[in-house]
Amino acid sequence: MPISRAPADELFGMDVLQDASLVEERFFNKPRSLDEDPDEALDHIYQWGMHCTRRDGANMPQKICDLTTEAGQQEMAERVKQWLTTCFNLHEQCGAQQDRHEGLPPLPSRVLDVGTLEQPYLRLHIPGNGERGEYTCLSYCWGRGVTEFKTTAATVNDLRDGIPFPELPKTIQDAIVFTRRLQVRYLWVDALCIIQDDTSDPSDWQLEAARFGTYYQNALCTLAATGSYDSSEGLFLPSLDRMYPTYFCTWLFASHPTQLYCTWIPSVGDTASLVSRAPLSLRGWAAQERILSPRIVHFTCRYVMWECTELFASERSPNQETLTPDDSIGDLRRVFSKPNATAGDPSTGWGTFCRWYVKTTFSRQSDRLPALSGVVQRIQSYTGLKYYAGLWENNIVEGLDWFVKHSERIPKNQVLVGPSWSWTTSTGNLFCKKMSWETLPNPPENCQADSPQIDSIEVQSTGQGIDGVTISGVITITGALSKLNLAELTYEQHDVDENRWEMEDNTNGICIHWDRLPLEVEVGSSYACLQLTAFTFRRNGYVNALILMPESVDTNGIVEYRRVGHCRFRQDFWDKGEPERKTIKLV
């Protein structure tokens, strides 16, 4: 598309773009002209975004480096060094959680010794006891269908003598090159620093996975391949932003007598979305990597961005971006950066984080819990709370009160690992109740005695503590148990959410969300329902409950149930099921 600059004599005090296509127009609060408040002005959304600065030119848009060239890579490395210097010298919170002695952190169990630009050797280094040194970490998507160069038990000793650089995926190659340009000697990459014989001998992987959080926490910075879908794309992505010239304009609003410098660039909605909606943000393991890393260099599809606790910046705005990523990861990063005494309780936002986390992808679904071990350990250091397969001891009942939308159909031969009551076994869009029973508005009086009581919890994992794959879990709980016989009801399946059922007339206020799409043989079955919470809405009482199927009976005669769904009833319909207070086990 041709872009030209308007003649200076056409518009007084304003430089504008011509031939930028108008693709959407929106109105806010009856706008009439640009003389109105800019928040109420006509909002034209072009194929070009607008970058604004103050009148004095502070935070003036900067040139974007061409990372496809060595000169551009070196220029970018110098910018990152400036951000690092600012962070270490001025940001007290960013390094508060790092383990540094005389300025250096302990090295991971294995690292890549990348040498220097002048002497670019590459080998696997196993540090001696207590050895310290500066290192970077790589956060990236492995991708599917990509042949990976991995460290195995058979090759680990050979790699100490040297690693063939050309055989590595491009993302790892670029991380090695950029680490050298930062004048840092060591780099940690999971594929090369962990023995990947996970099928025959997973012991090394289990041990190192438990240390992931510490490795990222103590790194100088994390190099994040944020804009790359797999390891073949690399860090140094070509930027379309370099194709467009920079233009400036000055707008003077009547109610805001402050002029703005504006630069038109290809629009992404907001700069922060380059991180929060990027391919890497969909990778499950990348969640704790970003949460625990004190400093991150994001290599996006547009330009490089910097994220630490006290600064979110970019090549375009090296001093400060106007917007920061608005997501649960950013919230936890900010909490974790503070001293323990002032951090608050990070577990209070757990439901919001879990809702986002279940949308991320894993090569193995059994990794969902191990990939959170570093985050969990940090939360425990703040709160001292016990943790059970995705639930915290201070809100177990609230943690059970979840349901899924758009549940995926599970193949018959697929075995889901973990207890049925844990949200980590869900396969759709997760919704967690944000309120505990005590904070629900106006619970019906006859429900107060039926609030569930947690008697005990036992969780078994393959690893030590929270670090391994959760195999099973049993919650012994005492609460109101009612009956649900679907054969007596006429229901209809939701048009969009296949796993959601509602009664045709809905006079009973019944809404069911199955954890997975039910098989035809299960339709019409009779279920047990365990009340979790009760609340009042529009003068009607309602009950949230778990839908359960009996599995077995233990030696003490206590029935063990498996969770199959979540339901909501009108209070009067719930009472028809003749609820009784019983002690049961959830498995």
Question: Would you kindly provide a written description of the structure presented here, covering whatever features stand out?
Answer:
The protein is of the alpha+beta class and 587 residues long. It has 2 domains: 70-240 and 272-342, no CATH class; 346-586, no CATH class. Helices cover 18% and strands 26% of the residues. It is built from 13 helices and 28 strands. The strands form 7 sheets. The chain has an 8-stranded mixed β-sheet, with helices on both faces. The protein has a 5-stranded mixed barrel with strand order 21-25-26-27-28. Strands 5-12-11 form a 3-stranded antiparallel β-sheet, with no helix packed on it. Strand 25 and strand 26 form a beta hairpin. Helix 6 packs parallel to helix 8 and helix 8 (285-292) runs parallel beside helix 9. The radius of gyration is 28 Å and the shape is elongated. InterPro entries: HET. Residues 135-289 form the Heterokaryon incompatibility domain.
Tag the structure with descriptive keywords.
single chain; 587 residues; alpha+beta; 2 domains; eight-stranded mixed β-sheet; 13 helices; elongated; disordered N terminus
